Amino acid sequence: MSCGSKSGASCGSGGACGCATGRGDVIDDARRAFLRGATATAVTTLAAGVTLYSFGAEPAAARGPDEKVTSKVRWGLLIDASKCGDGCSACVTACQTENGWRDTGHPETDAQWIRKLTVNNPKNGATFSLPMMCQHCADPPCVDVCPTGASFKRADGIVLVDKHTCIGCRYCMMACPYKARSFIHEPLEDQKPHAPRGKGTVESCTMCVHRVDEGRIPACVEACNDTAGGAMLFGDLNDPLSEIAKRVAAFRTTRIRADLGCNPGVYYRNI
Amino acid sequence: MARIAYQKLEDHSPLFWGLLALHGAIVLAGLGAAYVMEHRGHIVTGMDNQIVWGMPHVFAVFLIVAASGALNVASVSSVFNRPEYKPYARLSGLLAIALLVGGLAVLVLDLGRPDRLIVAMTTYNFKSIFAWNIYLYIGFLAVVAAYLFAMMDRRASRSSLLGKTVGGLAFVWRLILTTGTGSIFGWLVARETYDAAIMAPLFIAASLLYGSAFTVLVLATLGRLMRHDLMTDEIAGKLRGLLAIFALAVLYFTAVHHLTNLYASGHQGVERFLLLEGGIYTAVFWVGQILVGSVLPLAALAARRFGRSRAAITIASALFLIGGLAQMYVIIIGGQAYPLNLFPGMEVTSSFQDGQVARYNTSLPEILLGLSGLSIAMLVAGIALKLLPFLPRPARDQGAIPTAAA
């Protein structure tokens, strides 16, 4: 690094650029400061890379079978709409494969845990595309209204339906602002053991809780990263060192219908 | 006041048995529909992931709201100390119970998992207004049953304090119950049609109207069965006045609800949908609820000479009930048909009918299940009338016959 000046007076305060000033103690201080800064930069960069590595493609720490879910963690998603291709449905297909729901030819009654929305501004024609699923709200209306408590929120922020106590009243579907829930209208076959479903009950995106508990990322995020535009990022919103928390802090993000005060756990960029 | 004589329904006319058979057949058909829905799933109904509450809920909420209002006559008699209503207080309480049982039966049979009723009765989330309503409904049945006991038991009925106390409790309970039923919709922040505190008083006004109309129709039907008029001229005149006031109250709250939404620019879309461009929902609102269900019966009641006749009150009551069903249809189904507003000001499309007005084609099983709720109510009332003395003896017989209770 060179400042191009023979006079230390032209350096920044403290001589942090390392130019000769004829004052040895100042030079030492400047070197120390430079080394500290360089080390901090390296650690920050590496930490981010490690975090991204953990949440983007490889498992985070798996939760032991006897280990309680903790509210120290809040799982969430960050979706960059600028990387989400209109017509790409890799996330939807992955979710179907992972959780066993599919198109049966009855679009009005088929379950859709995740769907692609195309949003158009009628005034200027600007269009964007994004995946929509359960927004895993911190204050979920579906949980508030459920008479039996079958709709519930785990301590780590994942909103689920207890299939054993859901009576199929559909009040949660009336209450959800995101139309994220589906009612099972027909008998089912070939269910996945990790995603039990049942006729007459309500279901929605589980944020692939079975994978998360194993330290893996949701199937939609994995598929988007592996085969599509890498628009989705999963991670712990409560961990300031996590990539998702840093990006949410660094960039302008939007949560859909944030005005309703439900505090969704899914953030969007570029919408 | 002179002691009032009561009687059981001792009619065995073809009309009585015909009505009993008709309601029995409808109940069986409704149970069959519920079995098919449970066995094959809700795919056999017109309900889907957009219109999640359909025709069964229209009937169920209508009957539950009417149940609370059917207690009007008893409440006026004991709480407001109007003795002219007293002869009809027992019937009023019975109708309240019967209508609530009918409405709840439909609600339960429509559940995705009706076999889990025991779960609904034992596992509660106390933040849910729905859970609160389960308590309110069961409590209402218990309080009105106690009220009937206080009115009908020979010893209990001697205590006017007991009657007033239980009657007062039932009155307060029914107001809370209908507030709760209205709040099932009023507390849904996600849907623009609802999300309004006025839903609670609107439902209370509707309950007063529907319940009074049911009372008039049941009294008129029983009068035909027994071949003498059970309504005195005095009570007919008072019911006529009450019906008119309640209908005007429903119109008032309906107008305020819509005007408030029209004023808020964010809700003008849903108002345009419901009032102008909503197709079937607009038609059902203007023709069903307003014209047939409000204006025509009010005009009938206001007519100078015809308005005071039994025919006018009976026809008006039938029209008010048709209007009530129309009102519930527009609120419940019309409110869901309008799409959720995920991106205000933007056009949204998806494979899940986002941004589209939902289509709803009601199915036969839904209609049968809904109608069966009404028939369950009428069967419960009819059988109870045969078993216990709920009915006043005709006015001309009062005093000439040994009394059953005071």
Helix-strand blueprint:
The complex is a heterodimer of chains A (271) and B (406).
Chain A: H1 24-56, E1 75-80, H2 90-99, E2 114-120, E3 127-133, H3 141-145, E4 151-153, E5 159-161, H4 171-175, E6 182-183, E7 202-203, H5 209-212, H6 219-227, E8 232-236, H7 243-250, E9 253-254, E10 266-269
Parallel strand pairs in A: 1-10
Antiparallel strand pairs in A: 1-8, 2-3, 4-5, 6-7, 9-10
Helix pairs in contact in A: 2-6
Chain B: E1 6-7, H1 14-40, H2 55-70, H3 72-78, H4 89-110, H5 117-122, H6 129-152, H7 160-186, H8 199-226, H9 233-263, H10 268-277, H11 280-302, H12 310-337, E2 347-350, H13 364-387, E3 391-392
Antiparallel strand pairs in B: 1-3
Helix pairs in contact in B: 1-13, 2-4, 2-7, 2-8, 2-12, 2-13, 3-4, 3-7, 4-6, 4-13, 6-7, 7-8, 8-9, 8-12, 9-10, 9-11, 9-12, 10-11, 11-12
Could you give a short account of the major beta sheet of chain A?
4 strands, mixed
Number of strands of chain A: 10
Q: Termini distance of chain A?
A: 41 Å
Number of helices of chain B: 13
Mean pLDDT across the residues of chain A is: 84
Radius of gyration of chain B: 22 Å
The CATH class of chain B: Mainly Alpha
Query: Which stretches of chain B of 5+ consecutive residues score pLDDT under 50?
Result: 399-406
Quote the beta fraction of chain B.
under 5%
Write up what this structure looks like.
The complex is a heterodimer of chains A (271) and B (406). With 271 residues, chain A is an alpha+beta fold. Chain A folds into two domains: 8-56; 75-269, Alpha-Beta Plaits, CATH 3.30.70. Helix content of chain A is 27%, strand content 15%. Chain A is built from seven helices and ten strands. Chain A has helices spanning 24-56, 90-99, 141-145, 171-175, 209-212, 219-227, 243-250, and strands at residues 75-80, 114-120, 127-133, 151-153, 159-161, 182-183, 202-203, 232-236, 253-254, 266-269. Chain A has a four-stranded mixed sheet with strand order 8-1-10-9. In chain A, helix 2 (90-99) packs across helix 6. The radius of gyration of chain A is 24 Å and the shape is globular. A two-stranded antiparallel sheet of chain B has the order 1-3. Helices cover 67% and strands 2% of the residues of chain B. In chain B, helix 2 runs antiparallel to helix 7 (160-186), helix 2 (55-70) packs parallel to helix 13 and helix 8 runs antiparallel to helix 9. Chain B is built from 13 helices and three strands; from the N terminus they run βααααααααααααβαβ. Chain B is mainly α and 406 residues long. The relative contact order of chain B is 0.19. Chain B has a single domain (7-341, 354-393), classed as Formate dehydrogenase/DMSO reductase fold (Up-down Bundle), CATH 1.20.1630.10. Chain B has helices at 14-40, 55-70, 72-78, 89-110, 117-122, 129-152, 160-186, 199-226, 233-263, 268-277, 280-302, 310-337, 364-387; strands at residues 6-7, 347-350, 391-392. The chains are: A alpha+beta (271), B mainly alpha (406).
